[in-house]
Each structure stands twice: as structure tokens, then as C-alpha cells.
Input
Amino acid sequence: MSPEPDVFAALADPTRRLILTRLAEGEATVNELAEPFPVSLPAISRHLKVLERAGLIVRSQEAQWRPSRLQAEPLDEAVAWMQSRKRTWDARMDRLEAHLRPKGDRHE
Amino acid sequence: MSPEPDVFAALADPTRRLILTRLAEGEATVNELAEPFPVSLPAISRHLKVLERAGLIVRSQEAQWRPSRLQAEPLDEAVAWMQSRKRTWDARMDRLEAHLRPKGDRHE
Output
């Protein structure tokens, strides 16, 4: 399983990571999301567009203020991708360690 | 715990993700890493620099061909960051679901 490339790019920005942290606690409007940041509303809107393209949030079409909501699936895929590499690496390290470990009853 | 911002930026490129996938199976030289890709050695070297800056690989200083090796810790931190958001979100969804679930013995 390969995650959407856009997911990691979206997570590469600290403001976008903070927006996701906020949205993990519940949906929020652009104004609410912009509140803690010393950046303009259009800048926050641009960040939301990046998160939306990456599938990490959805924005309601209904209300004029279009609240944003987290979508957890892309995070799951990205985590699965990283954990799979990690497992391959750990398995390799275990084999290497077993190979290097001195053993009285083992000569190769 | 907050992961290095550079980790997600490093993971945002598909060639760099394939390089990491290869390195999870064992260390490799620039030439070995470049082999499956239709890109130049300097391009691969630039990708390795990005991965190195993000702490995702270390390159040996000893040999002339400087083999690259995966470093798993930044992956762990990035996974922890994403899982923490996911847990907050899941907990919120559970509360919402509990709240919306019709209950004969419950009126709010």
C-alpha cells in the first residue's frame, strides 16, 4: 500500500500540522483555525486547500463558513507505509545482530 | 513529541520513498541506489542529501563510495505524531457516536 504523495507534502509544513492537531479535536471554520496564527485568512485558506487535496480534511459545502473536518484514512496509510519500512529494517537488524553475536556452539 | 519537519518533506518525493524502501533492506551505495531509476547520479545524490538532512539516513564517511544506511528513529517519531492525532480523532468520533446513539434509558 502506498500513501498519497500529497500526504507527506501536506504534513511537511508546521502550520498545517498544527491545523490538523486542532481539527483532530473537532471541526472548525477558517476563522477559528486562523485565530492562533499570526498569518492572514487567505494564507490559512491556502493551507486548507493543500490539506484538502491530500485528502486529510474535507470541507463542508453546506454552510457559508465551510467548516473543515479531519479525514483519518490518509494518516493510516502513511503510518502503514512507514511502519512497513520500519519492520523490514528491524528484521534486517535482528538478522545482523544474530549473525554478529558470538556463540560458543556456532561457527560460520 | 514533534517530528523533524524535514522528515515529512523528505518523504513527500516518490523517488526518495523508493530509496528508503531499498535501504530498509540494507545499506547501499549511490550507484546501487541509482540503478533502478531513470535519473542521473547527481539527482540521486541530491535526494540522499535531503534524506540525510532529515535524519532518515546516515552516509558512511569511511569508504569512497559512502554507502547509505537507514535511520529508523525519525520514522518512529513521525508515526507517533500521526498516531497521536489519529487517537484524538478516534476518541472524538467515539464520543460523538455515543452521543448520537439512541438509548432508551438516556435522555439529554
Observations:
- The interface with chain A takes residues 2, 5-6, 8-9, 11-14, 17, 20-21, 24-26, 70, 72, 75-76, 78-79, 81-83, 85-86, 88-90, 92 of chain B (CB under 8 Å).
